[in-house]
Amino acid sequence: MNHLAHALLAGPEHGLRLGGLMGDFVRGAIDSSVPVDVRKGIALHRAIDSYTDQHPEVRSLKAAFEPPYRRYAGILIDIWFDHLLARDFSRWSPTPLAQFSDGVTQLLRQHDDELPEALRRLSRYLHARHLPAAYAEREMISEVLSGVGSRLQRSNPLARGLLEISRLEDELAQTFEAFFPQLVEFSQDWREDYRA
Q1: How far is residue 17 CA from its own chain's centroid?
Q2: How far lies 73's CA from each of 18, 62, 179, in Å?
Q3: Radius of gyration over alpha carbons of the chain, in Å?
Q4: For residues 9 and 1, what is the distance between their CA atoms, to the nearest angstrom?
Q5: Whole-angstrom Cα distance, residue 115 to residue 25?
Q6: Tens digit of each residue's pLDDT (9 = 90 or more) over 59-102
Q7: By the 8 A CB rule, do 19 and 41 touch?
Q8: Rounded to an integer, what distance in angstroms lies between the CA atom of residue 74 and that of residue 113?
Q9: Residue 191: which residues within 8 A CB-CB, separation 6 or more?
Q10: Contacts 24+ apart (CB under 8 A), 52-58
Q11: If we measure between CA atoms, which residue out of 135, 179, 112 comes closest to residue 4?
Q12: Does position 194 have pLDDT exceeding 90, yes or no?
């Protein structure tokens, strides 16, 4: 999943949400100096990614991507799922998308000194482009894919990824509809177990 989904699935607690946003930027063991709720948010991020990668619906969807896109199917799916989530956000959250998005960027800015450098750069990018709310706009998805592709070391087709997404748009929407409610339930259960 991508930034909007991780922020939403982390729930309303700021520490968990901050950790959920940090998850892609922390490798290996989590430093014990990190506050416990942020560590739990990072762990939740990893659990969400693992659940998503192993889910039969998502695995089947990845196989539907044609080369050369199949190698990058996980990235394409994650970003498009954030688009689908943003486009219909009121279905998943009582907080309006623009307000939720502003809260995400504000949270990151408040903790700027604690963020890994790559997340600091992402925070500035999100703020400048009104993300994650702008994920609702199809044109923004094309820009985001180009940006991700430019940061990868090897040559890749992500800048043209919207072409493959368009080909699979119905399958992507059907998979999201089947999968995302299960992911919401998984995340809620995980957070409940964390509190226990």
Answers
A1: 12
A2: 26, 5, 16
A3: 16
A4: 10
A5: 9
A6: 999 999 999 999 999 999 999 999 999 999 999 999 999 999 99
A7: yes
A8: 30
A9: 10, 11, 16, 44
A10: 52/1, 52/78, 52/179, 52/183, 55/179, 55/182, 55/183, 57/175, 57/178, 57/179, 58/175, 58/179
A11: 135
A12: no
The DSSP 8-state label assigned to residue 30 in this structure reads P
Residue 196 confidence (pLDDT) above 80: no
Tokens representing 109 are: 């800015």
The mean pLDDT of 138-153, rounded to a whole number, is 94
* DSSP character string of 64-116: HSPTTTGGGHHHHHHHHHHHHHHHTGGGT-SS-HHHHHHHHHHHHHHTGGGS-
pLDDT value of position 192: 92
Q: pLDDT-based confidence at 35, cuts 50/70/90?
A: very high
Tens-place pLDDT, residues 95-121: 999 999 999 999 999 999 999 999 999
Mean pLDDT of the chain: 96
Q: Which residues of 113-142 are buried (b: 16+ CB within 10 A; e: fewer)?
A: eebeeebbebbeebbebebbbbbbbeebbb
- 103 neighbors 156 (Cβ within 8 angstroms): no
Amino acid at site 24: D
